[in-house]
Amino acid sequence: MIIFPFRNALNYNKLKFNMLKNKFSPVSFMLLLLAGASAFSQGISPNAGQSENLSVTVSKQGVALVSFSSGKDTYTVPAVTHLEGCITTGKIITRKLPGGGVETEQKLVRTGTKDRCTVIDRFIPDGDGIHWEVEIRGAGKPWTTKIQSGITWPVSASSKFWAPWSDPRIGRKESSPPGTPVEAQMTVPASAFNWGDPLLPHSFVSDTLWYGAPYFRYEEPHVIYIPYQRDLICIPMVTAMDKKTDSGLSLVLDPNDEILDLTLETTAGGTLTFNRIYNRISADHPLKFSMDLVAHEADWRGGLRWMSNRYPDYFNPVVTKAHDMAGTSAYSNFDTDFDVAKMKKMAFNTNWMASFDFPYMGMFLPPVGENEEWIRFGGDTTSISAMRNYAQTMNRMGFHVLNYFNVTEFGTKMERPVPPRKNLDDKDIWKDPNEFFYYKLPGSWLPVPDRVLRDSVYFHRQTEPGGTHLTWEAGIVTDPGEPVYRDFLLDQARKHVKFIPEASGIAIDRMDWLRMYNENRDDGITWFVDRPARSLITSWKILMKDLAPIMHNAGKTIFLNNHVKRLDLLKNTDGIFDEFTNAGCPLNTTALLCINKPGLGWTNDSSDLHKEGPDAFFQKYLYMGVYPMAPFPGNDHSILPDEWTDQQYMDYGPLMSAMKGKKWVLEPHCLEVVNGAAKANLFEVPGGYVVPVVFGEPGSTVNIRIKNTPGLESVKCEGIYPGVGSSFNLESSYTNGILSVKVPLVRGCAMVRITGR
Question: Looking at the whole model, is its pTM more than 0.90?
């Protein structure tokens, strides 16, 4: 049976009514209309291409139709690129490509402004999918509009979609129906105010999801952005699926593309559209984008599995010792006089050094001798040798140290306008942040656009439209893409490598500023509303091409406090140390970005445990494969020790230790909880696998089944439990490629450890 979005004669008025009722965008309507026209055209163009699982044809109307079969059912899905506000002029040209591919070419004109361009869509068979390329050639003066690429899935009662979202409760849906098994519940009662399960697919709804963060707009700049929103995606992909036929199709964007800003628009009618924003359309710089359409099982894992295999540089740490740093963590300025054995029971492993050793923000290692002291921002004195001694001592105790780094903020008590120079001696100019910044790093600040309303950018009282962005302690916001500032940051990285070799790496803070655009510069690819600009996303990528090798070639790691939750910012990095996982949305995006990397989280204070109860608090972290921050002496704006809190961490410490070095298993339908009696996830770890089984009924026993996963034929299964001193052997059997394990629960939880016999 061929399944099309419309099974009756094409009715334009009915389609128009449905568009209004479901609040479809113009591109959604176009996809639906073209899909219907394609389905009922008298014939299909002979131009076609085919991969192992998918084929693509082009209708007489010039619409690409991607088809694949599942059993007796065949799915045909239209795939279209459109530019917002534009109409097609003339005929759509179709051509065959060498190797079996096909391309379409259309000329577009923008209504009102009459801006013009040519859009070419290429569909190329590529192993297990169809590779989709888009090329846009401008004409005349530069301009921009939303560049929209999307598909329409044939919606039925059994169809759903999934994206790597911050929370599944989109489209105003707040909870699952009564009687829903635990495994399929959007959230759990104790955590409903704070956390939703991001691994659940959703029925098709009309909504807009932001890639990483809402994009910068004059009227809504979102200064000092924190990723608490439910309507975020962190990986540029989306999956449509039909549970009844076990069929799925993922649209996966290439993270190597010049993605400045991006949204995912979804509709109740099954249309899934990516909108690329602020890309410059010009004759001088043809735009090129790449995507892939991949068929797989009806499982959220399918598209993510394909993408993580295709783009390992974004998902895997460069320095493999980053996995040794996994565990609970701290952000502390405390010395090394603490209870080492106690912290190890809490699975503690890494301290992001919050000593504020720098004399001011940005000058992390000043140009002084190793034993020469300076007044640190924290108030007393320190030196390079003191910082090195701390890292050495922590190493001897079995722990890791990350030094503080920041590429978007500089100085303290910065003055505006630029003050006259007072100190003419370059040797000591570093001691004054104003002198050093304005006369050694000229032009490195991030200007506030003139067209921003003052009230919308207010954070520091001196911030003004047309001036510079100011930040913490009256520091100044910087553009790391400015060559002189980039060179300064690279020099700071080299000093870390040279003078503090015992530190395990750096953690880069305050990436929220990367959402911004520098209207005083031109990166050659951005057209911000009506003018050239430099995206700080571009600045970051240029910087990291040079900074990452400095650290990695010395065996040092790079962790990120990535306020902007985007996969394409993670290339050349090793892990995330997130400041906001006390909230559910940042926890979820951190976890999804760290399927093969260590994800270290944040705990504000012990009230985070009291609100949910310690079991719900820890179990959502176990399920997502992320570590909460430990109660460590001297933690800065984060959890401090007390007897009750320490005990909860020690209760769950063995379970957290068991998932050290985890990598998510993404094989098709690899894990099932029988009758949905609990939630569970499957991780590969050194020596085997672990399965956190969580949110079950306390004192009950649940059964799990694992399949499509290698190495299960002869294994030992153990249960690790909170507050229980030792592990216990679990009853298991292996039949027809399926490992079945009977799992008693303590406090609703167990960590199942699977190792070879």
Answer: yes
